[in-house]
Amino acid sequence: MNTGICPDCDAEVEVSSDTEIGEFVTCDDCGARLEVTDTDPLELEVVPEEEEEEEEEEDEW
Questions:
Q1: Does pLDDT of 11 surpass 80?
Q2: What class, spelled out in words, does domain 2-60 have in CATH?
Q3: Which region, left, alpha or beta, applies to residue 43 given φ > 0 means left and ψ of -120 to 50 means alpha?
Q4: pLDDT digits (tens, 9 = 90+) for 39-57
Q5: Cα–Cα nearest to 45, from 34, 30, 32, 33
Q6: Helix, strand, coil tally for the chain in percent (to 5)
């Protein structure tokens, strides 16, 4: 297992050792959807939720 840090809540996130760049994981602490951006060392980036973006666009009309 590899361990990275959730950029949203700073919790440790464990992923399988065969996880590849571009895969998605979920932080168990805050529920953020994360994308693996590097594997050595493990780096994670928050993926914006599409639903929230669509709701914001609808509010603008």
A1: yes
A2: mainly beta
A3: beta
A4: 999 999 999 876 445 545 5
A5: 34
A6: 20, 40, 45
- Quote the CA–CA distance of 55 and 2 in Å, as a whole number: 35
Going from N- to C-terminal start, the domains of the chain cover 2-60
pLDDT > 70? residue 23: yes
- For residue 13, report the phi and psi dihedrals to the nearest 5 degrees: -120, 125
Q: Tally Cβ neighbours within 10 Å of residue 26.
A: 13
Q: Give the rounded percent of residues in the chain with a pLDDT score beyond 70.
A: 80
On whether the CB atoms of residues 34 and 13 are closer than 8 A, the answer is yes
φ, ψ for residue 12, nearest 5 deg:
-75, 135
The Cα 27–Cα 7 span in angstroms is 10
